[in-house]
Amino acid sequence: MSVCPRTAKRRRTRLCGSHQRQWFDAGRPDLDAWAAQADPIYTAIDEVPLSGVQPLVRLQVLVGYQAQLLAGGRLSPSQVKSAVVWLRCHDIADLPAAALPAVGATTTYLRVWQKSLRLAADSPATARRSTVIQLAALNPRLRGSIPLTDVHAPWLVHLAQEQVWALAASGASDANVKNVGHALRWFALFPRTQWPDEGRIAPQRRPRRCDGLPGVVESACP
Predict the structure, then answer these.
(1) Which class for 137: exposed (0-12), middle (13-18), buried (19 or more C-beta within 10 A)?
(2) Which pLDDT score is estimated for 110?
(3) Average pLDDT of 127-148?
(4) Contact, 94 vs 121, CB < 8 A?
(5) Phi, psi (rounded to 5 degrees) for 112
(6) Where are the domains of the chain?
(7) pTM surpassing 0.85?
């Protein structure tokens, strides 16, 4: 029935001090049933228990953690714990598919691990036909990605994919490959931009009134 490895030696409940307080605050329910669902206690500096995380996610955390170590990044034990606690509290069943917050220190490592797992799952053939091309999947030397989701013309998407793939295979730098992607997305703004499935729809800017000229929109201002 032990819910953590540091059980109290002199307590009849066989709980450690932290779990004893949690059980008491919960109204002292049936001990066996409560212990089966109790959250792990994260107190040791160099230990992060994964017992409360889904089995698949445990493996994914270890893979992402290893990739972060191999990349030479500095690791904060408190952020690792925060990430694991977040997974446990939200009952995440698959880290690569999880909808993580876009910002926040608590989930910083989760976003790093999620990105590593997604890159590891990408094959060159899949990345070549993707509308968000992960460059590392085409060439391990390259970093970053090229988004093509806002390019609507199928022929232009295909052209961009082929050009990026050819440059990645030729050993071009990250900057040169990304410049080609940017150039093609810029070009996509021009051909028949208001027709469906052609070109790329330009972002619409809200008109504003010019200073001192009520009713005159920005496009008419000098």
Answers:
(1) buried
(2) 92
(3) 80
(4) no
(5) -65, -45
(6) 1-38, 55-121, 124-187
(7) no
